[in-house]
């Protein structure tokens, strides 16, 4: 049973960028015959978030037969069954498909392998149907964003997977700091404890954003929508949101970005000064910071250029668009 008749069954590895598997794009729900109606409900509830979503009726060798065809298996079954039937197939976390199990009542969604490689993502999506995501990966358990999740938020992927052991430990200890950007052409020599992220696409725009303190989520939504519409863009064009460190904890912005499925990158004052925008800013006069919206949009944009200069919306949120 499949919702995507064009899915390729000949592949033998996860299909996320560079086979690094930070995201789940093609998933399969494995369900017993008596639970197929629930599987259909899951397809209806979250299927539009993936490139393809198939339903496979459970039998003893179902995982063996389809191993490598999907980024993530959603086991509509007891976790013990999924664990016993896949244990002998597991080889390497960067190549193995992720596995998330969920009960028939959609009460719990439990990633059991590949949490950072699609299973946590699927569990989060199942939360929209009422399931409680039971995350056990260390960074999520500590309510922190591991580097794989940062890569997904920035529409990027991890190039050197082994490095994430060290960098995620640094995340737990609050020692990693923000993602740093390096522009080329340039040759870079890195150690085993440096995680390299590479953007997935060759285009896209960045929302540079500043605000008054306490701006609410709806003000950010409206400002972003209006700015994108004026620039002839839409949500699908946005790679991530950029701002300054002094605005990095604005709850309304973080909530709005989360609802749009976007990451937030915060630049230090020194970086923004290197990419100051063309529009005069009062913050430069008052507190010595360049205008956050334009400077962060330029700093984050692939070409360090502005597609749209800053505009203030509702006297609360300022938006510029970088490219």
Could you walk me through the main structural features you see in this protein, from its secondary elements to its overall organization?
This protein has 323 residues and is of the alpha/beta class. It is built from 12 helices and 13 strands. The protein has helices at residues 36-46, 62-66, 79-86, 119-127, 138-141, 147-153, 164-172, 217-230, 251-260, 269-274, 282-286, 292-300, and strands at residues 26-31, 52-57, 72-76, 98-102, 108-113, 132-133, 156-158, 197-199, 205-211, 238-244, 264-267, 306-313, 317-322. A 6-stranded mixed beta sheet has the order 2-1-3-4-5-6, with helices on both faces. The chain has a 5-stranded mixed beta sheet with strand order 11-10-9-13-12, with helices on both faces. Helix 8 packs across helix 9. The longest helix has 14 residues, at 217-230. The chain is elongated, with a radius of gyration of 21 Å. The two termini are 42 Å apart. The model is unreliable at 1-21 (pLDDT under 50).
């Amino acid at each position: 049973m499949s919702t995507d008749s064009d899915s390729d069954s000949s592949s033998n590895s996860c299909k996320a960028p560079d086979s690094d598997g930070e995201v789940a794009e093609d998933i399969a729900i494995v369900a017993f015959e008596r639970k197929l109606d629930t599987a259909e409900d899951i397809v209806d509830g979250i299927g539009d978030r993936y490139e393809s979503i198939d339903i496979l009726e459970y039998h003893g060798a179902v995982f063996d037969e389809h191993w490598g065809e999907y980024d993530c298996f959603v086991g509509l079954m007891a976790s013990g069954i999924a664990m016993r039937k896949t244990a002998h197939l597991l080889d390497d976390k960067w190549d193995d498909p992720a596995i998330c199990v969920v009960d028939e009542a959609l009460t719990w969604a439990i990633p059991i392998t590949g949490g950072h490689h699609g299973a946590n993502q699927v569990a989060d999506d199942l939360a929209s149907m009422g399931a409680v995501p039971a995350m056990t990966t260390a960074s999520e358990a500590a309510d922190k964003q591991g580097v794989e999740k940062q890569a997904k938020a920035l529409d990027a992927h991890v190039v050197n997977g082994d490095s994430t052991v060290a960098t995620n430990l640094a995340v737990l200890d609050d020692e990693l700091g923000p993602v740093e950007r390096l522009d080329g052409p340039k040759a870079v020599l890195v150690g085993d404890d440096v995680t390299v992220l590479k953007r997935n696409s060759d285009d896209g725009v960045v929302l540079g954003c500043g605000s008054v303190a306490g701006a609410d989520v709806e003000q950010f939504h409206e400002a972003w929508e209006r700015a994108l519409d004026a620039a002839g863009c839409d949500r699908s064009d946005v790679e991530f949101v950029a701002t300054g460190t002094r605005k990095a904890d604005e709850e309304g912005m973080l909530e709005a970005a989360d609802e749009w499925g976007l990451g937030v990158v915060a630049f230090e004052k020194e970086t923004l000064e290197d990419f100051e925008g063309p529009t005069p800013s009062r913050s430069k006069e008052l507190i010595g910071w360049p205008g956050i919206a334009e400077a962060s949009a330029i700093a984050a944009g692939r070409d360090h250029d502005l597609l749209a200069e800053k505009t203030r919306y509702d006297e609360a949120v300022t938006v510029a668009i970088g490219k």
